[in-house]
Amino acid sequence: MRIFILVALIFSGNIFAQDINQMFSQVQQAVRDAGSAPQPGCPHCLSDTRLKKYPLPETPSTFNVKCRNFIKSDGTFGDWGKMIVTYINKTEERQKRYYNPALPGMQSAPHTCPNWGNMDYNEKAQFWVWTFASIAHVESSCDNRSVNTGSVPNPNDRPRGLFQLNTLKSTRSWRGPNCKFPSGAENVYNPANNIHCSLDIMDELLKGRSGEYQSNGKIFPTNSYWEKLRPNHSSTGGKIGQLIRMFPGCKLQ
Amino acid sequence: MNTRWLKTLTILAMGFGVAQAEISKQQLEKIETYKGQYKVLGGSSKGCAPGLLNIVGDESERGVRIGHDIFLGPFKGAEEKASETSCHVKVDVSMEEDRMVVKTNVDKCPNKKEKESGRSTKYLIFKKDKLEYRVAETEFVCHFGKVSEVKK
User: Fold this and answer.
1) Which of A145, A151, A160, A170 would you mutate first to test chain B, the one with the most B CBs within 10 A?
2) Within this chain, do residues A189 and A143 fall inside the same structural domain, yes or no?
3) How many domains does chain A divide into?
4) Pairwise CB contact (< 8 Å): A187 & B104
5) What is the pLDDT at residue A22?
6) A179-201 pLDDT, tens per residue?
7) Residue A54, domain member (yes or no)
8) Alpha-carbon distance A223 to nearest alpha carbon in chain B (angstroms)
9) How far apart, in whole angstroms, are the C-alpha atoms of residue A166 and residue A168?
C-alpha cells in the first residue's frame, strides 16, 4: 500500500511538473504574441507612416484652415505639430509629464480623454498636437499674427500670436526657458517662439502643485494661463474643451 | 582735480541710480508678507481676475505676479537693445512708501505699423490685507482682497 502511494505521488508530481512547464511555455508565447514592451518616449511619432492618422475636421467653423499647420489634411503633422512632438520628446521628464498614464482629468472628471489609459505614446503625441491646435484655434484662429486690440492693462504689452503671449520679454520670461525670447511683435508672432513658450507653460501646469502655477495638474479646469481653461470660465474647458474632446483617439472602443 | 571730482560725482550718481532702480532685500521681505490668494473687490475692467500673489522667476526675471495677467518686475529692472525685430525696452522698478512702481519705456521700434512704442507706469499699492493695481496711462485699476495665505 505504501509503495503504491509513493508511486502515485511521484507520478502525479511528474504530471504537475509537466503542467508547470506547459503553463510556462504558454506564458512565454503570450508575451511574444503581445509584442515588446512599449519603448519610452515616442521615437517613431514623426516618421512611422503606419501609425493611425487623425486629421482635424475640415469644417472652418470647427478648426480654422490655418490650424492645418498643426495637423495636415492627411493626418500627418504640420510644421507646428512637429515642433510640439519634438519638444515633448526632448527630455524624459517632459515625456513623463505629457504621457503620464495617470494624468488628472483625463479619465476622471471632467473626462477630457476617456481612452487615455489605452493610448500608446504615438496617440498621446497626436492628442497633444490636437490639444494645442484647439487652444490656438480659440485664442487666435490659428493666426500667428493675431493681436488682442481690446482693452488690456498695458497697451505696450498686448497679447499676440498663436497662444496670445505677452509682447514684452520682462513680463513673460519667468514662465519658462523658452519664454525668454526678446520683446517685440515680430518675435511673438514667430510660431516657434510662441509654441515653445506655450509648451513651457503647459509643462508647468502638468507639474500640478509643485509647478509655478500651483495648479491641479489637469489641462482644465485649472489655474491656467489661458483664461478659457480656468474654473471660473467653465468646468468643462468651454470651446477649447469641446474641440479637444473631438480627438478620435480619446473615444473608448 | 576738477575732473577727478566730476568722475567721483558721476560714479556716485550712477550707483545711487542703480540702487533706486532695484527692490532691496528689505523691500522684498515686505512684499513677501502679501503672498496669498486674492479675490477681486472691484475694478475698471473684466481683466481684473482673482489669483495668487506670488514671487516668481529666477534671479534676473524675478518679480511679483497676481494671477496670470498681472506681473510687476523684474525687481532688478531690465533693458533690451533695439534690433531688426524688436524695440528698445527699458524697465525701471522701484519701491516707494506703500507701493511698487514699474516704469516701462518702449521706443526705437523697427515696425512702425505695430504701434509698439510707448510708456507705461504700473503701481501695486499695498494696504492692510488689500492691494490696488493701477496703470497710470490707461486708468486700468483692480482692487484685491486677501482670501488666504499662500499654500506651501
Assistant:
1) A170
2) yes
3) 2
4) no
5) 58
6) 999 999 999 999 999 999 999 99
7) no
8) 8
9) 6
The answer on A234 and A122 residing in a single domain is yes
ipTM at complex level: 0.82
CB within 8 Å: B138 and A156: no
Determine the residue type at A89: N
> Same domain for A32 and A80?
no
**Residue A59: inside a domain, yes or no?**
no
- pLDDT on residue A53: 87
Does pLDDT of B16 surpass 70? no
From chain A, pick out residues whose CB is under 8 angstroms from the CB of B59. Answer: none
What is the grid cell recorded at B54? 506670488
List the grid coordinates of A192. Answer: 516657434
Mutation for testing the B interface, residue in A157, A171, A179 having most B CBs under 10 Å: A171
pTM of the model: 0.83
Q: Higher pLDDT residue, A8 or B84? A: B84
A25-51 tens-digit pLDDT? 554 544 444 444 445 567 677 776 667
